[in-house]
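Hello K.,

You asked for the raw outputs rather than the summary table, so here they are, unedited. I folded two proteins back to back in the same session to keep the settings identical. This is the first:
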Amino acid sequence: MDILIVEDEREIAQLINSCLSREGFACHHAYDGITALQQAQTIQPDLIILDLMLPQLDGLEVCSRIRNQGMTKDPYILMLTAKGEELDRIIGLSTGADDYLVKPFSPRELVARVRALLRRSLRHEKQSQIYETSHFILNLDEHIATRKLENQPQEELDLTALEFNLLSAFISYPGKVWSREQLIDKLWGADFFGDERVVDTHIRRLRKKIEPNPAQPSFVKTVVGVGYKFEDN
């Protein structure tokens, strides 16, 4: 699998490269935010290790642009920073990072985090099944999601792999109230290391793509103090 290392401190970048190359990963490098965006489009990596403090564009802006520009692959993003404050973690996760690692870190922990993130994509077994509700059709075999709103033409939704699996989980259990912990276990499994609030970030992103009005969701409802549920009567 391809990993893009975005780190302006070359000694740290070389350390990360050495650790991951020994594990059999193909590593690529970028030392500033602009180059990182160009490399991400060219390489289409499976995972990006992204430093928060970068020249030209900081890691938060790089992460946000990667999530919004529609890449062929939807790479996992592991954000690195020397800052350990909770606010920085929340901001990083809100821009679309999947996990967060504070410097200094041990090479063993870095490798464990990378392997855990990459295993997530291997946990979803292929299913030959189609789910259909009043407004949605999900073809799990072909990985196609379609929305059919009243008085509007049917449209294929542009969902990332994670967003598709999240919508699939909701539609396959209509009316079920999911806690953050249950959604993490369903989508990522027991190897998840990150902050559980990353679920809220992906819910917001999914709502922007499927809801007629994301500010007043009709389909993915919040159950205060519990979690989320899907309704489509």
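The second followed immediately with the same parameters:
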Amino acid sequence: MNVLPSWNHGSARQAIETFVSDLDGRGVPPEQRVAVFDNDGTLWAEKPMPTQLHYLLQQWAAAASADPTLADEQPYAAAVSGDYSWLGAAIDRHYAGDDSDLGAIVRAIVRTTDGMSVEDYEASVADFYAKAQHLTLKKPYSGAVYQPMIELLRYLESNGFTCYIVSGGERDFMRPMTTEYYGIPPERVIGSALGLKYTDDATVRYGAELAFLDDGPEKPVRIWSRIGRRPILACGNSNGDVQMLDYTSGLRLLVHHDDDTGRGDAPYDKGAEAALAAAAEKGFTVVSIRDDWATVFPS
């Protein structure tokens, strides 16, 4: 039976199948079979912009409409004008290690949810997923997941793995869709987190701060604090995933966005230069979207 039908036969697929088949011979028990996956650019498309940014732009435009003075400052100016070049450059600089513009983005993010209950935020995000379409694929975001990665999740689970999402994306933005899109329940979603507080009306609400950004060296810290085990398989795609891959004791997969065949995932290396350059030295298995995936998105 072909358990990975969207994967071409090649070195990446062989590495996965060999690693998994060897676990029984090595006597690795199910409780040690922990796999962690980045989300944006690893489990689903992150271009032309991360999905959460699409949601936030809608929220920021609405906020600037209610308070026109916001339209003169970033990132609200980008949301109102539709010129996202400032945001794109800020994100690219972050992946290059320059967070000079990250503060303005974080302040706008926490302002969006400040004082909101976790249930109201969940409902707002769920409504977004129900209505929004991917900006270039022109289909719901459920159709922007990578079909080969969904198959990999199921393959690992059938071999005793417990799979987690470990993302720089915000945890509570991912949770409303991860069960439906990936088959991963909310308690196995690890991501950046907004500050929370319990209020007198018996409600958990968001505060005016970012609790932590789950990226780079923070990812292994959050893996240990949430899971209490070192993963034996990890998959990422960017510079921010290098430490998570380093922390993993077994198979380390690095998705390379090199598909120039027009299947909907345009090629790019920006934000992954350091990871790709270090792949051979660190022993990462590079997964070429162009060469290793027969299918990219669900039909």
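The two ends are 20 Å apart (CA to CA).

Happy to rerun anything if the numbers look odd on your end.

Regards,
P.
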